[in-house]
Amino acid sequence: MAPLGPFGPTPTILAGVSGGPHSLALALLLARWVLARGGRLLAGIVDHGLRAESAKEAADVAGWLVARGIESRILRLGLAPGPGAQARARAGRLAALLDLATTEGAGWLALGQHRADQAETLLLRGLAGSGAAGLAGMAAARSAGAALLIRPLLGQAPARLEAVVAAAGLAPLRDPSNADPRFTRARLRAALADAAGQGPAVAALDQAARAFAARRARQAQVVAARLAVAVQLSEWGFGRLDLAALGRDEVAEAALAGLVRMVGGGAYAPSEAAVGRLLAQGAGTLGGARLTRQGLLLREAAAMAPAVPAVPGALWDGRFRLEGQPPLGLWLGPLGPAAASLPRPAWLPAAVAATLPALWRADRASRDTVLAEVPALAYSDFQTSFDIRLRFAPLGGAGG
């Protein structure tokens, strides 16, 4: 845990627990670590609802953990089976866990991926043609907006984690999809033929991911230095770029890729080739963001997400998270054409105004949607104030 810190006194950590051997080992090991520091460990158990037995399994896992003094919460997604079920389950699981982290005040979300998972990820990304950043595999720690996502077991062989669970007297759940040959990861796992994660192939892939990760860390420092002199990023989701200072080299491509992901609200940065073309053109759209020849990088208005219920912790457009306690019945979404009727401060480009986050409410008399508040413009039609903040918090990233 030490390389993932600092954690400070009495940390509150949320662990994602599926009931499989590796996430159970994570919970058991973290429980000891947190207890020694007087902190709090909470296990988040996500029931995707994709199998008839999933509800009972989630309840069983919660019972196992509670019996060992580990506080648990079951999060039910109710996903429908069908195409892309695994991808939808991953996205829904992460979103639900991050929402729980926000609600419970957990600054860290711990996941149970291990060394063999890292090896499989490297193979998957290699087959997909990922660049050096993608070949660094999953990051041991990265920001996920609502919490710092950490993977304390990333360097551990799965056999060691199985031993921890066996010593605790638990019979872990086994997800049948992990061996389903319809999924690429399952086929790669079968090809590696190393369930213990202690063979030479897994070790070599793990070392390769570590080397790429070290390269990525070095590049991140160089990119940060370039951004410091070439970019001004606004908390309201746009940036001003000095294109001459940014340059057109590999560092510029990496810097612009990260900016596009942030401003466009994407889960991943665009490809190096696509970013290179955008730099060469000097203007255009990519990944939900638009770059002008004047160096303004802003959200592509037509690509913004629809409004979402304005509940505490709500994330809109992959970029803005609502903090605080707004009144009931509000929606968080784009300001849109209503921007034209509001005074625009000098710091706000006209093209950006429509992409600002705003709160909307339904008017009971007219049944029309009425603008309630625009935090960026200090506009509100409420008679009394209430505690609300919006935080620019794009999620995801190439680090996985």
TrEMBL record:
It comes from the Bacteria. Its EC number is 6.3.4.19. It catalyses: cytidine(34) in tRNA(Ile2) + L-lysine + ATP = lysidine(34) in tRNA(Ile2) + AMP + diphosphate + H(+). It holds the Pfam family ATP_bind_3. It is found in: Cytoplasm. InterPro entries: TilS/TtcA_N, tRNA_Ile_lys_synt, tRNA_Ile_lys_synt_N. GO terms for molecular function: tRNA(Ile)-lysidine synthase activity. Residues 13-190 form the tRNA(Ile)-lysidine/2-thiocytidine synthase N-terminal domain. Keywords: ATP-binding, Cytoplasm, Ligase, Nucleotide-binding, tRNA processing. Belongs to the tRNA(Ile)-lysidine synthase family. Ligates lysine onto the cytidine present at position 34 of the AUA codon-specific tRNA(Ile) that contains the anticodon CAU, in an ATP-dependent manner. Cytidine is converted to lysidine, thus changing the amino acid specificity of the tRNA from methionine to isoleucine. This is tRNA(Ile)-lysidine synthase. It comes from Falsiroseomonas tokyonensis.
